[in-house]
Write a structure and sequence with these properties.
Four copies of one chain form a homotetramer.
Chain A: H1 11-32, H2 48-54, H3 56-82, H4 88-113, H5 117-143, H6 153-179, H7 181-201
Helix pairs in contact in A: 1-3, 1-4, 3-4, 3-5, 4-5, 5-6, 6-7
């Protein structure tokens, strides 16, 4: 943090606080997931092993949400690595994105408590909203010339495409949820695969600029 | 963070920690809001869709509080972008401000559980106290010459006025709460509008210094 | 954060992480206090005003704990403003100090639920342990030459004395708790007064070095 | 944080965010431990002293988990003090490590509620997984040349060995858990002793590079 002798653009300072708030929210949201996993109050000493195994849908939901929040955090890191300026709109778009991140522990708890279509739709909608907001933030930042001016169009396009994989995948899974909830959940695994594949296909020359 | 070879004013270092604590508390308070939203224990699998829809007053309270905490965070960012020095009084005033931020998840849970006058008064009082403390902190910092010395009087006045919009709006809504609780709640939406309008009217030349 | 080309002492980097962890823990511990304040499940709509007023012992406990955690945070800021090096012992002493900070939400909840001697003793012991550990950390850092080498003996002594006020006050209040719990609680207010008085008496020339 | 004029490797910036997320998660996970300690709802005023004493298995579990999370935090600090570059793999390995840290409050609550073999096995497995992941991350970073290039093979080897002490100790304790749960728990104390002993035996010249 450089000291700023004059009242001048201090984009770095404000972006530093935006990242500090964002990392804090990511950290708490991802840690709150663990509060969904508890043994029933009625568990007896003898029943602990069975009770622990019976929690497997909760472990699975925890794992999926941990991976998705991790993925969105990496998306956020990638974006803000090249964002050099802020605007009022950027701060609010980032808060909107963080609101969907904060909702994830709730969606996760509903999903792990009730394996019904509504839970799957809620969960996929939450995740899709987070992803579309992240994409919107990226387009907003590029259009508003808030990103590094040396950023080429290939990198911009690549950012849009990789950003869209998760929310498009989750949106498609909403349709599957009405057919079969398990099918929808399994389809989420494909999102990770698709993400990796697109990263591979669109890969920039293996320079350091690529996460 | 520059290393400091001598025991000398290290205002930057202490302000860095103040911001680190503040961003942590903002992040935690905003994330705690989600704990207010839970499905009743008695929810059956078939009733999940209805139960999710029945939570709408909680979603609304979550949304309002998220926006207000976001607004106060932006106010805090704006202020500390130009504060260059600290004092013991500044640290304590900031802690007082943060205390009102920490109370928001409680006020929000009361508001979303009970739509009565007392809840609305509690909520509006909490928000007003946060806003007035932020304004007090700003005046204290300006008077104590803790802000950047190049800061002009227009910017100072603008800071006071924009800081006062939210707390004055919430204070006025307390009166409305005794007439009709919904009226009070809807009046909060005007705060956002008023904030935007004042930002527009008082706008500084669109230089980078404006958030 | 300077990049470090060589495997060399990087005290600044490690101290930066120590402060990052500490500020995070302070922020969460202080925010967790709010979880102690909840309306009873049996509260009816009509009874909300009375129920909110009946929570006053909880508000008071919240306020006291917020102020004390704030005080210990300021003590921590003061100390680490002049600590320039770390050692394995410093990391562990700081973790021990943070452990007592983490315990405060628990002690506070016991105190606000049960106004009995045992609660007051628990609370005062928790606070005293935190304060004595902070004093120990300061002496350890000075003896181990981890502090800025330009730090004079007056400043060191002043650090020890101001650090001791809170824990000595809380220790004395344990005795009072066996006579009258309210007496003990009121005596805590004197700690703040004593702190301010000693700051005044021992005040260094009003240079920037003084918080 | 240096401003980055060109779209170029910005390893420092990304590693800064990785550390910010990690410290937030460590701070939150370590603070969540306190939520395991609560007095039973049925406690009467007269029974508070006994009830507080009856919580001793919870205090003990809190203490052990606090020390182990502290130990893993120090391991993390040591590693990232010399890691200079990131890769996609490093980000995900770190997230995997953090996932095991986030699980610790759950394992701790099971352990403190039920002193049975299954709880001890769960706890030791959780801790072992965290430790092995940390070791894997270190080997990955060294092989991928993400660490400081001046890092000698002695330091690398030392890192592997010290990293392995905790997870190997916890793995061995799983066997003991099937004989006697207390025996397993006491064996964890040896991990601390072994850690200190190995630090002593493998000690690098007392230069600043040693934590």
């Amino acid at each position: 943090m450089e000291s700023n002798e004059k009242v001048s653009p201090n984009h770095e300072k404000v972006l530093g606080r935006l990242l500090s708030l964002s990392d804090g929210i990511f950290a708490f949201a991802i840690t709150l997931l663990i509060l969904n996993i508890t043994l029933p109050d009625s568990t007896t000493r003898a029943a602990v092993p069975q009770a622990l195994l019976a929690l497997w849908p909760k472990y699975l939901a925890f794992l999926i949400s941990f991976v998705v929040i991790g993925l969105y955090w990496i998306v956020h890191v990638r974006q803000f690595r090249v964002i050099r300026k802020y605007s009022s709109g950027l701060l609010w778009l980032n808060l909107l994105f963080l609101m969907f991140i904060v909702l994830i522990p709730f969606s996760t708890s509903v999903l792990s408590d009730f394996e019904v279509t509504a839970s799957v739709v809620l969960y996929a909608t939450n995740m899709a909203c987070a992803g579309f907001t992240a994409t919107g933030l990226w387009i907003y930042a590029v259009r508003g010339k808030l990103v590094d001016e040396k950023l080429g169009p290939a990198r911009v396009r690549r950012g849009i495409i990789t950003n869209l994989i998760a929310p498009v995948g989750f949106t498609l899974s909403i349709g599957l949820a009405f057919i079969n909830t398990n099918l929808a959940a399994y389809s989420w695994l494909l999102i990770g695969v698709a993400h990796r594949a697109v990263d591979w296909i669109l890969k920039l020359p293996k320079s350091d600029e690529d996460i």
